[in-house]
Amino acid sequence: LRRQEDRVRREERLLREEAALRNERIRQEERMLMEQEMLEEKRRRRQEQARLDEEYLREEDRPLREDMEGMTQLALVQQRREYLQSARRSIPYQRQAEMITMNLAGNN
Question: Which of 3, 54, 71, 100 has the fewest beta carbons closer than 10 A?
Fold first, then answer.
């Protein structure tokens, strides 16, 4: 009878351990899924912000591109100064400032 009770206790302990391991694996999988979802959401937000920045620059740059050939050196310097002062330090704004700088160098 005692051996039977010991065997039952061992089986119960093994079942509890298996359940604990299974629950831990489930928690780890849930954490991984949540992390993946958060990373995906961050990626989506970055892509949307980049799209909005590009769209904004296209609209802002249209007059600049249309008038670039007729602008004087002083106007180019002033335009570059305005961009550098108002830029939010995002990559698209830096590219725009670089483009203006290259135009300045090309007009010298």
Answer: 3
